[in-house]
Amino acid sequence: MTALQPNYLIFSNEGVSGVAWKNRALKRSVIAYLDVSDSCTVMDISRELNISVPKAASLVSELVQDNLIRDYGKIDSTGGRKANVYGLVNDACFFIGVDVKKYYVNIGLLDFKKHLLSIRENVPFQLENTPGSLRALTDIIRRFISDFSELESRILGVGINLSGRVNHVTGYSYSFFHFQEEPLSRIIQQEIGIPTFLENDSRSMAYGEFMNGVVKNERNVLFINIDFGLGMGILIDGNLYYGKSGFSGELGHIPFFQNEKICHCGKRGCLETETSGIALLEEIKERIRGGSSSILSQKNRDVDRIRLEDVIEAARKQDTLVIEVLAELGDKLGKAIAILINIFNPELVVLGGKVSETGEHIRLPIRSALNKYTLGLVNNDTQLKLSRLGERAGVMGACLIARGKVLSAAH
Amino acid sequence: MTALQPNYLIFSNEGVSGVAWKNRALKRSVIAYLDVSDSCTVMDISRELNISVPKAASLVSELVQDNLIRDYGKIDSTGGRKANVYGLVNDACFFIGVDVKKYYVNIGLLDFKKHLLSIRENVPFQLENTPGSLRALTDIIRRFISDFSELESRILGVGINLSGRVNHVTGYSYSFFHFQEEPLSRIIQQEIGIPTFLENDSRSMAYGEFMNGVVKNERNVLFINIDFGLGMGILIDGNLYYGKSGFSGELGHIPFFQNEKICHCGKRGCLETETSGIALLEEIKERIRGGSSSILSQKNRDVDRIRLEDVIEAARKQDTLVIEVLAELGDKLGKAIAILINIFNPELVVLGGKVSETGEHIRLPIRSALNKYTLGLVNNDTQLKLSRLGERAGVMGACLIARGKVLSAAH
DNA sequence: GATTATTAATAAATATTTTTAATAAGTTTG
DNA sequence: CAAACTTATTAAAAATATTTATTAATAATC
Predict the structure, then answer these.
(1) CATH of domain A214-387
(2) Which residue intervals of chain B bear CATH 3.30.420.40?
(3) Is A22 on the interface with B (CB under 8 A)?
């Protein structure tokens, strides 16, 4: 059987108006509804979209013809004729997510129903602000796509996470690959031939956890990305919050300490100088040099060559020094998160990024700091959870960002 | 001519479905569009709402019949037949706003086009958590309404600001008047016979400034309410942000200082303990007792009886002591606002509340603290302005909250 | 196990909306 | 100043959606 050419038209508004436009919008609404409710009947759609049953039925039948949704069978009834339920078709279309890290890339493929079908992790790569580095990146993406050639015509979007400042609307990147006039997203799109979307890494991870991770029904969520640096993704009423220029969530650089450590941003006293992966690593090294004992010091290795991964591994092995330093870090970070809780009154705060892989060793100190520093009434509203997706939040988020933009016809 | 009985039906969805429901929704959309664009043509509406011109024309003619909009005349054309422009009818309907303070009440009347037609300020009142105090409040509202008896049938909503915790959806108040089962908004509504909506005071003021104050086209705005306490209203994409239980924006109680001052909330080191009207007043008194000279000390009056209003008056008269203390307060508050700017990347921060009436004496120290404590890139995005409405932001906000809820049929 | 109540799907009739065409009311240009 | 060109409004025709009525399917009840 030859590859299906699904009816992509509904994901764009080009060249249509009037009834055609309305029908596309309605079909997208049906898909959006199916996206959150998983399956539904014709009557559900009629109620939800305020359209008549025959109209809903005709939309459904067209979407079935387009192979975007299909009949899932009958639903249990409470007395009366059983209704047909419909849901999305798994392989109707696909999306690619690219999580660009400093020394490697993670890349994955997501299907229409938000399953991560394939993921390739730790693909070697050097993130530099050079044309060569950009070419290496597009090569990696192209190579990944070529592994799914039979699906290629159904890959509708590519999402790319970059750290630093990114404008998701214009597609410009300000921290990397900004050596040309055109927006970066368009450059890459021309290279790989698929609509491409850029996003900040912490925001993307937040979106991943929100759509397909630890978040269930919460709509106002903070995602704290404790990695080498410290970032945050903000979800407000189920949508990513960007701020005026997409620079929101700069948690790492809020003025928080009276210390003398100069941050790489040039300011002094940034939160990140004491509560990030780098700060953790440096503190551990400092203490080992000062004579503290630890699994990390015993292996008569060079202190300078300890990596953040080693520290996290040591925490898993119940290393006392690491646990102690994490507790101190957690108390400070908890105080900062207490501020956020007072301001946002969120339903949920999710801890993600490399350092969060130390699990309860970081969560519990933060939790007790929250009890200490927030108003009881406000604090009781807020859950504190560890990321469910872990390292994969980035790829998942990138896929989902692309999926969300394509499905809402926002391109 | 007898008082018009306008067609209020479009502001509710009760008992309608299908075409009737859609038409009401469309008419509300027309009004919402007119609300931001002031005036428009039939073709504008057709484009904006994606409906055909004849359909738009029929909606417009019905709205004109309902006396909600009217023909403003012809618009200038750029070659071709001139179009009729339509706009809202000033006196189609009215809204009342009640700003409840500790020792007095401000109350005002707003028309359909957001003009504050009448305001009564400083109506004596004692805010206590007693049935008597509640009765006094409803009496004040009733008396105010009775002054506009010929308009009464067109008063569609009453908004009430209360300090402390308020749930705007359920209508419950948790800090005042919570001695009955039923939500407070319903109790008051029964007393005065007009749909009633509750809101937190800082949020309401933020909304006032946003809809009818210093905010022009900005969509992400923070309103800092520096009054006796310290509050904040958050506007995200043009909407008030509430958080899970409506407790967002608790700026006054974020853990910020290592001081020993115990806040009335029970915690230590709250921002409010050093950067609120009360903190300002106490610091001034302290310094005068310590021998500092000031306009306030010269009037051989009792130091204990200096009021916040006196301090603000002194600042206006260029009193050195007050200006000095304000500068210190502004520096601390500016550091806190720097945190907010890093997190929200807002287009605008508005300073409101009593202390903001000191004008540049408080704005400039905050501005320079922002330069010191925020990243240049982020800071350049953000304007810092003084409230335009001042004391009236509360009444204006309360009216507009009621207006917004009624017009969006959210009741 | 037949009957009744309930809900879903379909068909026919009715109502509404959009499209297309025509007309009206201007502006610009030769 | 009239012809050509624009744009707005109205009218009639065509397309589309909603209503209402009917049929189909199933669970609960007697």
Answers:
(1) 3.30.420.40
(2) 94-206+400-407, 216-387
(3) yes
Alpha-carbon torsion angle B237, B239, B245, B246, nearest 10: 120
Task: Assign domain B8-88 to a CATH class.
Answer: mainly alpha
CB–CB contact B345 A245 (8 Å): yes
Within 7 Å: CB of A50 and strand C?
A: no
For A190, other C-beta atoms within 10 Å of its C-beta total: 11
Establish if A245 touches chain B: CB-CB under 8 angstroms.
yes
| Half-sphere exposure of residue A390: CA atoms within 13 angstroms, side-chain side | 6
A165 part of contact set with chain B, CB < 8 Å: yes
Residue of A nearest to B23 (CA): A50
Angle between helices B42-49 and B18-37 (to 10 degrees): 110
Query: Under CATH, what is the fold of the domain A94-206+394-407?
Result: Nucleotidyltransferase; domain 5 (3.30.420)
* pLDDT tens, position by position, A134-156: 999 999 999 999 999 999 999 99
CA distance B204 to B100: 11
pLDDT at B3: 40
Report the alpha-carbon distance of residue A141 to residue A157 in Å, rounded.
12
Contact list, B248 vs chain A (CB under 8 Å):
343-345
Helices in B193-347 by DSSP H: which ranges? 201-212, 277-289, 295-298, 308-316, 320-344
- In this complex, the nucleotide whose C1' atom is nearest to the CA atom of residue A78 is D27
Backbone φ, ψ for residue B114 (5° rounding) = 70, 25
In chain A, residues under CATH classification 3.30.420.40 are 94-206+394-407, 214-387
Predicted confidence (pLDDT) at residue B4 exceeds the cutoff of 80: no
Residue B285 in contact with residue B306, Cβ under 8 Å? yes
Distance from A216 to chain B by nearest Cα, in Å?
14
| CA angle at A250 for the pair B244 and A157, rounded to the nearest 5° | 85
Count of Cβ atoms closer than 10 Å to residue A200 Cβ:
27
Nearest CA in chain B to A373: B255
DSSP A5: -
Which pLDDT tens digit goes with each residue over B61-110?
A: 999 999 999 999 888 777 788 889 999 999 999 999 999 998 999 999 99
List the structure tokens of B212.
């009818």
Is B243 within 8 Å of chain A by CB?
A: yes
Are B253 and A375 within 8 A, CB to CB? yes
Q: CB distance from A335 to chain B under 8 Å?
A: yes
For CATH 1.10.10.10, the residue range(s) in chain A are 8-88
A84/C2 CA-to-C1' distance in Å: 27
CATH class of B94-206+400-407: alpha beta
Nearest-nucleotide field for B46 (CA, C1'): C18
Is the CB of B245 less than 8 angstroms away from the CB of A220? no
pLDDT at residue A31 tops 80 = yes
Architecture of domain B216-387: 2-Layer Sandwich (3.30)
Cβ-in-10-Å burial (0-12, 13-18, 19+) of B371 comes to exposed
Q: Is the CB of A323 under 7 A from strand C?
A: no
B77 C-beta less than 7 Å away from strand D: yes
Q: What confidence tier does A2 reach under pLDDT thresholds 50, 70, 90?
A: very low
Considering all CA atoms of chain A, what is the largest pairwise distance in Å, rounded to the nearest integer? 77
Is A250 in Cβ contact with B344 (below 8 Å)?
no
Q: Which chain B residues are within 8 Å of A340, Cβ to Cβ?
A: 343
Report which DSSP code applies to A2. Answer: P
